[in-house]
Amino acid sequence: MSATKTEVPWYNQRPGQMRSSAHDEDEGSHDRVYAGRTTVAMTVKERIETLAKPKLSRSTLSYGPSLSWGNQQTMWELSNAAKNTEPSERILLLAQPKRNLSTQEDLKPQWEYSCGRQSPIIQPSGAARKAVNTGRIDQLAQPKNHHRNYTENRPMYEFSCGRSSPVEGPTQNAKTAAERERTNQLAQPKKVHPEHQASREVQTIPTQAARNTRPTERLEQLAEAKKRPDGPFREPEWPVSKKAMKAQSTERTRELARSKGLVEGFQGNRNVMWNVSKSAKQAVATRRVEELSVPIQRESMDHVQFNPDVFKVSETAKKAKCSARIEELAQPISRK
Q1: C-beta of residue 15 within 8 angstroms of C-beta of residue 38
Q2: What does the longest C-alpha to C-alpha distance in the chain come to?
């Protein structure tokens, strides 16, 4: 008896795997090709049923035992055989705790001879105090001598820019040197300008004369507050006199009162909304207008992206010659 081939459900098929012929006959094939890959599309009914299913909560999914880090609990429960078994020598060796190096006895050798650590202060022994140096130690203890051509950098230290001068006592010649008129002139401190006035203090003390003085009559007049009458004031509306009613304006007044007119040929702003005329409503488009109104049919990007020569200029376009009108329009505008 031949083994029957089990059909894979359409929702478990891979994107490159074709759907079964029975399903294609019932529902119709909606497979599409995107970048060389075949994807299986659902029907509207199947898609609605898939979207109608509630989303599974990740809290209900089990990825293993629930662990609490930081304790001594095992990930999996130990069996009785694992609890009763005897460890091997290797396991006992690995189970030994690490040696504690915090004690002074264990730390001293490591502190003395380790790299990058400072040397401890150790009291020399009696034998080291009574020992006699060898010739080699005396030779190494000698300080390094300067080169025979070495000269001390003292002049640069004294007169170089940015360095502090050394403190030296004056020489005997400098102590017994005679004074010069120019040296005494330069030694004088800078004097203040004869018209210099020091800064005035913020708070000034009035003089006794200012305290005992009396204001003049003019100052007392200016110091008086402005007198404002309490009323009665004129009403905002008052009757117009008969002479003012019968008065006639002059020709000049009428000329000045005339409003400024518009320029000849002026057209006002067109309204944003206007009524369409009957002739425009009943107009019939010409054959050329209908031809221009047809949209351009361009290939979709699903097909254009596989064409390597889509942006390549054809040989005919390279050899084409523009018309006289295009040459005329291509000329730049000559500005003076």
Answers
A1: yes
A2: 143
